[in-house]
Backbone:
């Protein structure tokens, strides 16, 4: 129940941080799509550890194997299984937490729920699981490409450094030009320096990823519970370390009057119904209206820090948890492809679901 | 697919704003619970229109009928169906929008998706549907009572008026003492006046509802996709007018260092593992840790305002949509029981799901 | 979980034999279908009690109310809720079984599962629930009509009286011409007499319903677990009193050699790929091949008989359960529309699901 | 949607006959179960090809790799992924059917549904997929062992050779003593000879597998749609080549009077409520009553035969499909562990689901 996502385009992920590997089974991909394995690898490379000084030093090539669902280079409509084997798993780095609970990690809650846990690197609770999502998301992007829909995310905040420019004021193609994945080069440099300083202090810092979906036709999303933004929100909140989600005007929109917030309709020169403003974030009543969909995702500071911390062990005794292991001082640069992957999966799912509602 | 929510405790709602009525089928309720129909009515009364000068003047008694699932006052384990008939449906108030799209309403997107729509009061897209959720949520609260879990929400922001006190600093029993549902009497009055002024201007304003869940044992929630906060987030984002969700430290947590944000564990005098702070909002890795769960939900200003607005009609022609119909100048006072209802449904669902993971 | 069926066209039923009524919420019906309420009533009338001497004498008009999902006579794409209120509920007829378990009824197993039960007429376990299915099935038939697909069932066996003619050898329009619903008039009369004799003895007898689905395009059904016949089978086995399901050659096919059983392909004059024989029952690998789909459903003799039977009460003491209450001496004549309803729901679901697999 | 089965204990299979391999992700397994990999291999060996002269000569060791979900030999509550790589894939044996449709295979329907297909050995439609089910079923059996529930299947019919003895009259431990998997040694020999003769003729023959589930407590199964036997039926019908399912008295029960068919309750010496007969097959109203559950599954003759057959190619032209490739002359001996696996998965799922219905 818990490792499965989606209704038509459906993924089931498996694997642990320090087990054999990480994988995903993607069901519901239409037949006849040319599977671009280079693109899947490209997306995995965007997420993989060891990309720069400000990401974790764990070394993983994150190469994947296609186990099923493809014949002569094309999807067959049957489940696509992808496997990424773990390589650089220094499990002994974790022996000190075999019986200790790291603060703000899932060690304690997994123990409480299951009575035992794979403590090595957090086991199943590790963000390493998101590699599987990124691989599946790459397939979802291929589906969306057929529909002319694009998904682009970027870092818009690190700690108190908040990018005030909107996505329309920047060239999103710049996102991949720097290690932080912020499309504003000057801000990117400030963020980089800030993260690097944080790293040197043995600490971590939070951030925000903004995501923009363009090219969505009007009509995607389902009324009531499966509103488009509700599923986007769930998908984002399911990513490790996420603490908040807002779309369109979001939390700041609560301060506006209705007369300020409402998006007036007009018909453009091509005869298409458009809105003059987009406080709605491209979604009305849970259904896309054809405008850009955009949202922000808040990530807390990574729980692993290079400092000793107060905690307890399985026996309930007070302990000092040592600051050990490899970690990211700030998760958002690597979170960008994860946010895109989950967004692509949600939109692709609704795109296919929409077909099932049309006579 | 879209009007159903939950995995074990599962609801399916139906009905439109100006049709026969609104209803819900709740499946998965354990047998043997005394169904307190007075309590269901009490919860519906908290949500119903016409409560005060600052809510819509539509008159609905919102009385319900139990259609099934109860025998000799007790739940039988079979589906509980509840029906609330509509009464004060001045449908003719809506004839002017039969072919016009109201800005920031779902008129246009329903038309785009389905090719036709029940335009009367928004039809299925109306927040009237949430009456069904509140009725179901009342049942969920009865289940949670057996588990010693309580759910309490309150208004924490209206426009720019933001309550700075935390929930621990107030008496939540005060929430029902005023029309705004803010447990701080002084702030409640300021909010009330602000909403009333907004109403007189024929405008609307947004707000925030905060919710606190207490008494949850450690272990609820499922890893990976069905994280406890991910499902809470989806449930909240599925409520009409919601634009954002954050739990624990939320968006403000991104500005903290890990060393500031991490919640240190300790063992309390009863031998229970606790955390000294609660930036985690009671959830680690998607699973409850036994601390209070708390979150904030952002509501946009109501789209209906008493002002003429630019828009288009079904033919794509520019029109002025008249400011007509009855509406709430600010939705958050009535949203409080809705937020509680959805939270109760999510927690009850995870409470029952958890049992299914234990050998 | 248990009162919901389908993936896209999805129904949730509710209600008990002697409660307020029986109902259904049908989700996923495409928008724009003219809802023929006369047809729904016609189908309900085919299932309703009191049709002839060989059906139960309970008097129920089985009139229904449309609670939602329809606007100006057309479906809107939102949930369609239908309610049938109970009328002739002589609940006191059941007081003798308040603490006794009727043999081969669900009294004991509901008690074991839930710790309490609505004993009146079997409560939720009563076949009265199937009225809701028939109403929903009528809507499914309207969807199928748009696709040129028809569903026709008939009684092919009562006790040892087995109709040897195939469906191609009879005029299925004759099915409704007699009380037994057997399209062979001579056999119908023999079956009628047999059932009536059984009734006079205070006994009951089993039977078989055969169903034929025509006009299905090739390609419906999903590989592996959701094979078209697997879902048809589950749907049929979910009907009260059903003990078996077989499609195409069924159980008798096991006696054939592959060289006898295989259906050779050919291309007909219109260029369509056809099979010369149809042992496959119109389904290959779980996917329709465009030939007629046909299957047989076995119904046990009704458990209620007008004879005293050995049993135990809730305390485990030996008792004689009296032969009381109203019942059908043979369920298959009234089961015909139920089988059709469930078949129509399954096919309509796959018809809409198929769209979601096409790019 | 189509490669996933179950609600709590949930499997997703992947893989093709002549691709990289076959695999399964099993979710919902409780934590703390010692994973007996030898037992998984034992079950796979029971299903694997090349066991005797009467099974296909394809050589597959069917060794598996545990990819996730296990730590220090115990299940962790997270998804268990198992991978079986293909070895003996003589894909060129299938080049002759690259554009031809084999009679009574799924070649044509996959082509119609997806517009392309992996023709090698049937691709995804091959019964090789059931290796994944058997591996998952072995895990399900480990769960059931904790509950004291056993699942045993055997061959009860091959062609016209039908075993008249009931399961109580035989020693089911004998089932594995012969290549046919019939617990009656004398009948087993007759069946063996009959299959071998059929093989020599280049033909195939159908059969029936009977399955018995013992030790189930009263209360498993869900009312209405997810009746225990309805899900068992769907699971069985999802197995390749299955044409029918009946439980308890099944199709033969339709010939009985209610007075003959009803199972009288009594209380045994231990105070347990029992039934004197078991025409109900251990299930009343879709819920287990504590008696043995038993059912029969009909398998058609294997579609691959060593004879030339009439068919058409993708262009619709008449062709002779050659009798080539390796195949089983009768599928039931190898189907025994598959039937057990699916039954174990269904029962384990209901066993865990039942917990979620108890307060």
Residues:
């Amino acid at each position: 129940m818990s490792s499965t996502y989606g209704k038509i385009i459906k993924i089931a992920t498996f694997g642990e941080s320090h087990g054999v590997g990480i994988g995903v089974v993607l069901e519901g991909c239409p037949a006849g799509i040319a599977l671009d394995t280079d693109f899947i690898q490209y997306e995995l490379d965007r997420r993989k550890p060891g990309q720069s000084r400000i990401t974790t030093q764990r070394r993983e090539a994150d190469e994947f194997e296609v186990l099923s669902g493809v014949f002569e280079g094309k999807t067959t409509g049957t489940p696509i299984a992808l496997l990424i084997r773990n390589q650089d798993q220094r499990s002994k780095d974790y022996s000190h937490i075999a019986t200790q609970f790291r603060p703000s990690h899932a060690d304690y809650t997994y123990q409480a729920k299951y009575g035992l846990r794979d403590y090595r690197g957090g086991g199943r609770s590790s963000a390493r699981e998101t590699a599987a999502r990124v691989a599946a998301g790459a397939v979802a992007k291929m589906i969306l490409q057929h529909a002319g829909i694009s998904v682009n995310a970027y870092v818009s905040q690190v700690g108190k450094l908040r990018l005030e420019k909107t996505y329309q004021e920047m060239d999103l193609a710049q996102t991949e030009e720097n290690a932080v994945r912020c499309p504003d080069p000057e801000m990117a440099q400030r963020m980089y320096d800030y993260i690097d300083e944080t790293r040197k202090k043995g600490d971590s810092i939070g951030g925000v990823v903004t995501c923009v979906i363009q090219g969505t036709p009007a009509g995607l999303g389902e009324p009531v519970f499966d509103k488009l933004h509700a599923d986007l929100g769930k998908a984002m909140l399911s990513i490790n370390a996420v603490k908040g989600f807002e779309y369109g005007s979001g939390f700041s929109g609560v301060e506006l009057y209705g007369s300020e917030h409402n998006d007036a309709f007009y018909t453009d020169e091509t005869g298409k119904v458009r809105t003059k403003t987009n406080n709605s974030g491209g979604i009305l009543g849970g259904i896309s209206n054809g405008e850009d969909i955009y949202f922000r995702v808040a990530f807390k500071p990574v729980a692993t820090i290079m400092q000793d911390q107060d905690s307890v062990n399985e026996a309930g005794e007070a302990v000092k948890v040592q600051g050990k292991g490899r970690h990211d001082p700030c998760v958002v640069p690597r979170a960008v492809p994860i946010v895109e992957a989950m967004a692509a999966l949600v939109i692709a799912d609704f795109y296919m679901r929409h077909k099932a509602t049309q006579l």
Remarks:
- Residues 262 and 282 of chain A are 12 Å apart (CA to CA).
- Chain A has a mean pLDDT of 95.
- The interface with chain D takes residues 1-4, 7-8, 10, 12-16, 19-23, 25, 27-28, 31-32, 65-69, 71, 74, 76-81, 83, 113-118, 123-124 of chain A (CB under 8 Å).
- The helical segments of chain A are 37-47, 107-114, 130-147, 185-200, 228-237, 258-261, 332-355.
